Amino acid sequence: MNMSSKPSINPTVRDHAEELMLAQTREGTYLATQLKEEALNQATTGTAKLLLEAIRKRLAENIGQLSHGLTGRYADGELEVPVRGAISEITGAVATMHAFGDRHPVTEVLRHTHGVLAALVADYTVLHTLALASSNAILADMCLQHLEAIKILDAKILLELPAAVELEYAPEDDELSGQIGPAAQDHIKATFA
C-alpha cells in the first residue's frame, strides 16, 4: 500500500472519528492538568493517580490509532491539518480553563473521568456501527478494542471511588475509618458479577 495515499472513508464515519479524537484530546489534557495537582500527589491510595495516568495514556493511544485508521498512516502522532487545528484550539481552551484555579479533589476527578469514559463507550459504539455500515472492518475492530479497554478502565474508576471518597470525606477519628472504602468496593464488585 502506498503510505501517502488515503483510504476512502465515509464522511459520516470520518466526522464521528474526528469528534472522538477531539473528545479524547480534551480529556487527556484535563487529566494531564489534574495529575499535576497537589491533591492527587498526596492521595494516600496512590492508585487513583496511577489509574488516571493509565487512562490518559490509553486515550493518547486511541487518538494515534484512530488517526492511523483515518489516514492509513501514523504520521508520528500528527493528524490531518483541520483536525490538528481544532485539537490545538480545544487543547488551548481546556488548558486555559484549568490554569485559572479549576482544582478538584480526587473524588471529583474520578467522577468526571467516569462520565467522560461512559460517553466514549457510547461514541465508540456509534462509530463501530457506522464502520460496519460502511464496510470498514478494520475501523470496526479497532472501535471494539478501544471500547473494551475503556470499559475496563471505567470499571477500575468505579472500584477506586469508594477509597477516594473515604479518604476525602470521612472523619479521620471515626472508628470505622479505613473500613468503609473496602466495604463499598466489595459491594461495587458484587454488582459486576
Gist of the model:
With 193 residues, this protein is mainly alpha-helical. The protein has helices spanning 11-34, 38-42, 47-71, 81-99, 106-133, 137-169, 180-192.
Structure in words:
The chain is mostly helical. The chain has one domain: Ferritin (Up-down Bundle). 76% of the residues lie in helices and 0% in strands. It has 7 helices and no strands. Helix 1 (11-34) runs antiparallel to helix 5 (106-133). The longest helix is centred in the C-terminal third of the chain and has 33 residues, at 137-169. It starts with 10 loop residues before the first helix and ends with a helix. The model is unreliable at 1-7, 73-85 and 95-102 (pLDDT under 50).
Low-confidence stretches are: 1-7, 73-85, 95-102
The proportion of residues in beta strands is: under 5%
CATH architecture: Up-down Bundle
Q: On the 0-100 scale, what is the average pLDDT?
A: 79
- CATH topology-level fold name: Ferritin
**What's the main sheet like?**
none
| Helix and strand run | HHHHHHH
How does the helix and strand content classify structurally? mainly alpha
Radius of gyration: 19 Å
What's the CATH class label?
Mainly Alpha
Assign the CATH superfamily: Ferritin, core subunit, four-helix bundle
What is the helix content?
A: over 70%
Tally the helices: 7
Would you report the number of β strands? Answer: 0
Distance between the termini: 45 Å
How many structural domains does the protein architecture include? 1
- Shape type: elongated
